[in-house]
């Protein structure tokens, strides 16, 4: 295959050439959309801590939603995991907050329904979500629980005739302040199994409150949700979810998506630093001519290339249907750690300008901290991989 003429500067080993022509066109479409339409909105809204609602209409017109789901969205055949991963990377390369908004809707929420719902539920909700006429959210994390959510979920569900009564609280729920459908996970008090419910925003007792004062992901409207006797019909319970093992299947897939996001943030920071180094003059020459600056750039590119290669193989394992929890956990732990190094080195190249929002790298630097923590911390993902390779569980 011929390499893309407009491929990323950071694609040193030409990974994009692994995509077939039709998928490469979709990737370029996403790149142009993010660069031309989305980027001009980013810094102003990041500084203000606001989500530009016009983004929803812009994404609707882009036709990018629903790509992974065969039969839904504009691209009816299912696309490869390699393309969806590179899409997440491409969006995060411009802004991790916008990528998270899209990933929560198109990934966590839609995939929960696609994989955990029955055919009637998929047909009821996914077409309008793929068209972005309705927006989704995913509510699992709780105020007093993080990595222990599997055994310590406090949000409860109680069967009452043909309905369920939900009580509890959720925290850090992206899109929840304006989402139409919120996939809420709760523990059935009768069998103690985790079940999934699609809560609609106008259901009585459902109250989202925006979390203020964040230093990262400032465009994302994360919310703390309270659920007080929320009555949800049995028809809104995801019929294919019968315990946390089914939920883990969803998290396994989406954790890999976060690793792609981390790669995108690293690339965005690296490309900003590379451009700056070629323009910034010190001692009568561009700082790109200084050996120590080149050292930081080369180390950054090495991290990016190693991470990209790992994620390409992860996507192949996903497409083959043979990837496991430990595969996505290793990718999340490794790539986010390498991302952290890249954004720090990139900010260093900017010197004092590296803390000014207008140069972009400060935003990547701050947002990297959120990506490093969610979808399983490095420590939790390390224990998952450690158990896989030793056969010994080191969990508490």
Automatic annotation (TrEMBL):
<dbReference type="InterPro" id="IPR009100">
    <property type="entry name" value="AcylCoA_DH/oxidase_NM_dom_sf"/>
</dbReference>
<dbReference type="InterPro" id="IPR006091">
    <property type="entry name" value="Acyl-CoA_Oxase/DH_mid-dom"/>
</dbReference>
<dbReference type="InterPro" id="IPR036250">
    <property type="entry name" value="AcylCo_DH-like_C"/>
</dbReference>
<dbReference type="InterPro" id="IPR006089">
    <property type="entry name" value="Acyl-CoA_DH_CS"/>
</dbReference>
<dbReference type="InterPro" id="IPR013786">
    <property type="entry name" value="AcylCoA_DH/ox_N"/>
</dbReference>
<comment type="similarity">
    <text>Belongs to the acyl-CoA dehydrogenase family.</text>
</comment>
<feature type="domain" description="Acyl-CoA oxidase/dehydrogenase middle">
    <location>
        <begin position="137"/>
        <end position="230"/>
    </location>
</feature>
<dbReference type="GO" id="GO:0004361">
    <property type="term" value="F:glutaryl-CoA dehydrogenase activity"/>
</dbReference>
<dbReference type="InterPro" id="IPR045008">
    <property type="entry name" value="ACX4-like"/>
</dbReference>
<feature type="domain" description="Acyl-CoA dehydrogenase/oxidase N-terminal">
    <location>
        <begin position="21"/>
        <end position="132"/>
    </location>
</feature>
<protein>
    <submittedName>
        <fullName>Glutaryl-CoA dehydrogenase (EC)</fullName>
        <ecNumber>1.3.8.6</ecNumber>
    </submittedName>
</protein>
<dbReference type="Pfam" id="PF02771">
    <property type="entry name" value="Acyl-CoA_dh_N"/>
</dbReference>
<dbReference type="InterPro" id="IPR009075">
    <property type="entry name" value="AcylCo_DH/oxidase_C"/>
</dbReference>
<dbReference type="InterPro" id="IPR046373">
    <property type="entry name" value="Acyl-CoA_Oxase/DH_mid-dom_sf"/>
</dbReference>
<dbReference type="Pfam" id="PF02770">
    <property type="entry name" value="Acyl-CoA_dh_M"/>
</dbReference>
<keyword id="KW-0274">FAD</keyword>
<dbReference type="Pfam" id="PF00441">
    <property type="entry name" value="Acyl-CoA_dh_1"/>
</dbReference>
<keyword id="KW-0285">Flavoprotein</keyword>
<keyword id="KW-0560">Oxidoreductase</keyword>
<feature type="domain" description="Acyl-CoA dehydrogenase/oxidase C-terminal">
    <location>
        <begin position="242"/>
        <end position="389"/>
    </location>
</feature>
<dbReference type="GO" id="GO:0050660">
    <property type="term" value="F:flavin adenine dinucleotide binding"/>
</dbReference>
<dbReference type="InterPro" id="IPR037069">
    <property type="entry name" value="AcylCoA_DH/ox_N_sf"/>
</dbReference>
<dbReference type="GO" id="GO:0006635">
    <property type="term" value="P:fatty acid beta-oxidation"/>
</dbReference>
